[in-house]
Amino acid sequence: MKHGLRWFWAALISVLSSFAFAASDSTWEMESMKPDLNDVESLQRGLALYANFCIGCHSLQYQRYERTANDLGEIPHNLVLENIIFTDQRIGDYMTTSMSEEDAKNWFGVAPPDLTMVTRVRSPKWVYNFLKTFYVDESRPYGVNNKVFPNVGMPHVLLPLQGISEEVCYGYATVDVLDRLNAFDEAQKEGVTDSIDRLQGRELNCPEIRVIPDSGLYSVEEFDQAAFDLANFLHYVSDPSRQQRKALGTWVIGFLVILLVLAYFLNREYWKDIHKDKPE
């Protein structure tokens, strides 16, 4: 009994932890995003974006190239080998990065996370907004920060497409007392005072980011579509059999409805005979 209770509490804590991890890291107001797994062209564009901008660091270690090609409109395998796979991997291999974990730790301090389940741990909307909200921040190691994931430890890999984004600030906002104390503790540990505004109980109020016109290859609308495509593709990767299950579920429900009708009429026939043979 005690052993069973321990398993129950462990499972409960695990579930609650996953919800906490899935919560947003900031108060940024996110734009809505509803994935569409029936939009095969969007999924194909998302695959191309992932192959060109993401796979250098981030793997999809539970997804195979072949399964992806077959699911996304039966893409010919030779096209995948020519345009998606840039290493000596084969069509049946998992979609893994060529960067070793040791090199990743040396270069970045920590290995970049696998993205197979990112939209299930977070959400497609979170990924979509994360891709759109990088902005210039010279205080960060890679010169950029992110509104959805503050102090993110990665460069803005889609910068050539989106262009340069800057914060739009409107004066100062009041800092929460606990945040102020945390900032003070961090400043003491690091021996810096570059967050003096925060220590004094205020910080810049920067509720918007703005893309510098013509600084990227895409227009705002085109980049929004690219961010949607990539988030949509990662949503597909998180559960590749989702669409097949839905299609199969439709047939199963249809079968059960037909079975229910047959059972109803069969039941009527049985009771008809029972009432007929019942003595008056």
Question: Can you offer a commentary on this structure?
Answer:
Helix 2 packs across helix 11 and helix 7 (124-132) runs antiparallel to helix 11. This protein has a domain at 27-162 and 215-261: Cytochrome c-like domain (Cytochrome Bc1 Complex, Chain D, domain 2), CATH 1.10.760.10. The strands form four sheets. The chain has a two-stranded antiparallel ribbon with strand order 1-2. It is built from twelve helices and eight strands. A hairpin with a 7-residue loop joins strand 3 (134-136) and strand 4 (144-146). With 280 residues, the protein is mainly alpha-helical.
* Straight-line N-to-C gap: 58 Å
CATH H level, superfamily name of the domain at 27-162 and 215-261:
Cytochrome c-like domain
Helix-and-strand structural type: mainly alpha
Helix content: 40-55%
Indicate the CATH class of the domain at 27-162 and 215-261.
Mainly Alpha
Would you give the CATH topology of the domain at 27-162 and 215-261? Answer: Cytochrome Bc1 Complex, Chain D, domain 2
Compile the SSE list and pairings.
Elements: H1 2-22, H2 40-54, E1 60-64, H3 65-71, H4 77-83, E2 94-95, H5 101-108, H6 118-121, H7 124-132, E3 134-136, E4 144-146, H8 159-162, E5 165-168, E6 172-174, H9 177-190, H10 196-199, E7 202-204, E8 208-211, H11 220-238, H12 242-277
Antiparallel strand pairs: 1-2, 3-4, 5-8, 6-7
Helix pairs in contact: 2-11, 7-11
